[in-house]
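User: Hey, my collaborator sent me this sequence without any context and asked if I could get a structure. I don't really work with proteins. Can you help?
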Amino acid sequence: PKGKGPQGKRITLKVAKNSVRVAFNGRRRLDLSKMGIATFPKCILELADVEELDLSRNMLKKIPNIIEKFQNLMWLDLHSNQIDELPAAIGTLRNLTYLNLCNNKLKGLPEELTLLRSLRILNLGLNSLETVPTTLGTLRELTELGLFDNALTIIPKSVKKLPKLEKLNVKRNPLPEFAEEEEPIDTVKRIESLYLVEKKDLCGSCLQTCQGERDELHKLEDMTPCPSNKPSFPSLVTPNSSARENQEEWRMK
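Assistant: No problem. I've predicted the 3D structure and written it out in structure-token form, which is a compact way to encode the shape of the chain:
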């Protein structure tokens, strides 16, 4: 219904054309980040031949299937929106090497995401993902994968063993390997009771044992250097000699 939810800023074709930039790598980038957009602007279909598209930091909830028109896309940034699901058409963008979906509201991933076989960097951090499909392991070109700050309890082996994966961030997930470690076992042998007796009350063997242990303690004390209260400056022959020579010069300055 009208008036419900954020309306967002309306993007015209003129505004979109003025937002096209040439990136450092020579690709044309359509930068519509931080524009207050709440609905995917259909007018940008006129610019569907760009290689890079930045719609980050907006209020987008849905990405329509018309995203498939952007067949030249190699770089797609959708981070920091309110996207709760991806369209199946995302799998048609076969040239994508970079996809950033960080900081959205994704609870699941479409199976078609695994069709993006050219992907090298995929960021899915800061979402609400509870599972990751094992088929994500088919993205064999991935070098970086962000899964941090989700609700994952398991990472599939197929994902962990991706052949080119150099960076896998799974921090702040309820994974078993991040559970608090048990309190370490104290391996030091400790006594529960201590009895004090006079020397004259000890038998010969006990007296000999105590005397041996006391001698060992004295040896350790002799080996431990005592800290000197007096500071030592072995390399300083005449204290403050260089300062004394330059004293008048420093005063003048």
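In plain terms: The first strand starts at residue 20 and ends at 22. You can pass these tokens on to your collaborator as they are.
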